[in-house]
Write a structure and sequence with these properties.
By secondary structure, the chain is of the alpha/beta class. It is built from 9 helices and 16 strands. It is 27% helix and 18% strand. The radius of gyration is 24 Å and the shape is globular.
């Protein structure tokens, strides 16, 4: 067919034009996707960028090297075989990763959480996953509180298996929050902002103050701590402890903040919060230095195959071993039964923990979500997960 002006377009010229148009269209699509990705990653849910005095303090930390935080004991990198195995297992694995029925939840009333001031008391209930309410010496605390339905910086991702036992808006004033690291299943923007408006003080690993600052938490309410540093809240001593994990909420900020466990000590009781971690000498160190503990809040779930995974997420058996090295009296298992985050049956971690605890003579507590546990009274633990059926 003649082109305008009488030129006849050959097949070669037509093919060249089509390829050029195709390349332009592909470039526009790539550019659009890049713009959408850049905009998404710039949203506050993905955290903040440390600057100024905070960044200078991070750079001076002994665990900060070459622009990122590191573990005292290096974690093995995933092999290609392990990564392929995890990918295929996540798609075609036959594990029962979500409960087949409703998980029992004990509803917690606000008036049941009125602290008994001047009473050397330690009590706690499980909110789900790593989130726990703890009262010690009349000081009300939350550990890694996540009340959102989805643990992701975008509105898609793993959803809760069960509701929290008490609504976030129904909580009484919370004195302190312990954050172990900045992953979305431990640090939830909406929950943090709500608690901050109530005047809560946040105890966080160094660097985590950056996302809190971006989310509007006043500096006066943030205690940004390095390992072995300590602070007090109404006479209760809080010590940041080493752990073995990693951090990051986006694609470009891996290990940009530190991760921590916590030792908390009151007049008569003390407890240990493990956070996410692989097994290491940290537990024996904590037990020798601050033990014995009355309660240990220890993760037992969300693990997968390979040394790289278990280097940063303990098995249930290692969790029981860690509890004994902490010299803790009773073990309160967490980090299971709320989100689909591991390559195992949803109830496999607690089943394995029960067996390991029995073999080691460990007093393992298995309360239902929302069921109050007092450190000084008997807890009628039951295998409630066995009743979760269709």
């Amino acid at each position: 067919m003649p082109a305008p002006g009488g030129h006849i377009v050959t097949d070669a010229e037509g093919g060249t034009r089509r390829r050029r148009h195709g390349l332009i269209a592909a470039a526009m699509i790539v550019g659009l996707l890049a713009a959408v990705a850049a905009y998404t990653l710039s949203r506050p849910q993905f955290g903040g960028t440390p600057r100024g005095d905070r960044l200078a303090r991070m750079r001076a930390n002994p665990q900060y090297r070459d622009g990122a935080f590191t573990n005292r004991i290096p974690v093995a990198s995933s092999t290609m075989a392990e990564m392929w195995s995890m990918f295929t297992e996540s798609l075609v694995g036959d594990e029962v990763r979500t409960p087949p029925g409703a998980i029992p939840v004990v509803v917690v009333r606000r008036d049941a959480l009125s602290p008994v001031h001047a009473s050397p008391r330690l009590r706690a209930f499980w909110i789900g996953h790593a989130s726990v309410f703890i009262e010690i010496d009349g000081v009300r605390m939350l550990v890694d509180p996540v009340f959102s339905d989805v643990v992701s910086p975008v509105p898609i991702g793993p959803r809760r298996f069960h509701p929290p036992p008490i609504a976030l808006a129904d909580l009484p004033p919370i004195d302190g929050v312990l954050i172990t690291h900045d992953h979305c299943d431990h640090l939830d923007m909406a929950t943090v902002q709500t608690l901050a408006r109530g005047g809560t003080t946040f105890f966080v690993p160094i660097g985590v103050g950056a996302p809190l600052e971006r989310w509007g938490v006043p500096d006066a309410q943030v205690r940004e701590m390095e390992w072995w540093q300590e602070r007090y809240i109404r006479g209760v001593r809080i010590v940041s402890m080493p752990s073995r994990h990693y951090s990051g909420r986006g694609l470009a900020n891996r290990n940009s903040t530190l991760w921590s466990a916590w030792s908390v000590m009151g007049a008569r009781h003390r407890f240990y919060v493990i956070g996410d971690t692989g097994y290491s000498r940290q537990f024996r160190e904590a037990g020798d230095r601050f033990g014995p503990f009355d309660l240990s809040f220890i993760k037992i779930g969300a693990y997968g195959p390979g040394a790289a995974w278990l280097g940063i997420h303990m098995s249930a058996e290692d969790a029981v071993r860690a509890h004994t090295e902490l010299k803790a009296r009773r073990m309160f298992p967490v980090h299971w039964g709320t989100f689909n985050l591991g390559l195992h049956d949803w109830d496999e971690p607690v089943k394995r923990a029960v067996v390991a605890a029995r073999e080691s003579g460990v007093d393992l507590l298995t309360p239902r979500v929302g069921e109050m546990v007092d450190a000084d009274t008997a807890c009628a633990s039951t295998a409630w997960w066995e009743g979760v059926r269709n």
